[in-house]
Amino acid sequence: MKTDNISLPEHDYLTETRLLHRLTWRDWLFAVVIFAVALYAQLVIAEHHMDGYEMAILWGSALGVVALGWFFKPMQWFVPLSAALAWLSMQAYGGDIARAEQVFVLKYFLASQSAIMWLCFFTVMAFVCFAAGLLQAKMRPVNPHHTLLGIATGFAWTASVFGFAGLLVRWHESYLLRPDAGHIPVSNLYEVFILFMVITALMYLYYAARYQAAKLGAFVYGFMCLLVGFVLWYSFDRGAHQIQPLIPALQSWWMKIHVPANFIGYGAFCMAAALGIAELLALRNPEKSILPAAEVIDEIMYKAIAVGFLFFTIATVLGALWAADAWGRYWSWDPKETWALIVWLNYAVWLHLRLVAGWRGKVLAWWAIIGFFITAFAFLGVNMFLSGLHSYGTL
Predict the structure, then answer these.
(1) What is the dihedral of CA 98, 99, 104, 107, to 10 degrees?
(2) Which of 55, 144, 223, 370 lies 20 to 30 A from 265 at CA?
(3) How far from 97 is each of 43, 152, 180, CA to CA, in Å?
(4) Sequential pLDDT tens for the chain (395 residues)
């Protein structure tokens, strides 16, 4: 495929292989701060609650965050800011969960549910501004600044900060409710939907910055608004925001690594579906399209699916190991396992057709969109309509 006059970013592979030589004092300071926070979490916050596996996960996560911060520079303020807000919330609690309704900053800003509601609000505001920015670009295509798109990006970052901080606070709240049964907040659909939104947002923000593709935010955040609708319904109608003790099936350290890896995959696949819609629109009338070039959208979609496929593969392997530990066998053809395999095969074929057969354009865009429905059924439909060993994840 020719890429003449296409604004794909150039790759300086020699520079990429010399990452350590490109690090600045800010990068090293970020690493020191993250490891200090990890040490503080182990020695002060968690105290005696962490076993060997959990400490390994904590320090592995710290290494991952440092690497991510070196790779995507905005993470160097995003992670410390989210952690600082969570720490302020912990100080406001003072060890008493009842203070969530008594202290102003907790009740309206930094209790986990308050922070998650701000996540929802700023997500909707980001979509409104992205959509308005797209309309502004259509009406005044010669305007190079697109102020609304910049405001939308700010809202997107703000939503992500509140979402990530809310998850950290919810983790702390679980220990305040039951010191012997606190757990990482990835144990039910409500919690993983919040994680899902944060991961999808951060992934979009990375690619939007790398490819100067902020106009695609209207499509990604249009999808995110659907997630907001589910979170609000699930909170107010089903009371899912109430923290519950872990059921025995989930009382395993495997959950702490299997679920996040899974949702990096889910987030990437769903973002790819939104980009598939954008690519189809860009292909309808390339000369008059205000969107990035279809080839650029296609490239971002490919990168998202490749990253999602990698993490979904890791999650599937981890899930098999967890199954062997819990049920004595790696694979049971449980409906959840079967549909996870279907999702994996779907994107394996997608990648094969793109990388080996050289497919591009409409077919793969439609495939990514259809893949969203396959992924959604594996994520929610199986829990709603099928029964099996994973039936504890029902609505």
Answers:
(1) -40
(2) 55
(3) 21, 34, 15
(4) 434 444 455 544 444 446 667 889 999 999 999 999 888 878 876 665 667 777 888 899 999 999 999 999 999 999 999 999 999 999 999 989 999 999 999 999 999 999 999 999 999 999 999 999 998 887 776 555 578 999 999 999 999 999 999 999 999 999 898 877 778 898 888 999 999 999 999 999 999 999 999 999 999 999 999 999 999 999 988 888 888 888 777 778 788 889 999 999 999 999 999 999 999 999 998 888 889 999 999 999 999 999 999 999 999 999 999 888 888 888 888 888 899 999 999 999 999 999 999 999 899 999 999 999 999 998 888 877 766 556 555 56
Domain ranges for the chain: 27-71, 79-242, 258-395
C-alpha distances out from residue 171 to 174, 245, 365, Å: 5, 12, 38
> Around Cβ 23, how many Cβ atoms within 10 Å?
13
Q: What is the DSSP string of 44-64?
A: IISTT---HHHHHHHHHHHHH
For the chain, the helix, strand and coil percentages under 3-state DSSP, each to the nearest 5: 75, 0, 25
Cα(94)–Cα(109) distance, integer angstroms: 16
Supply the DSSP symbol for 379.
I
d(CA 134, CA 217): 9
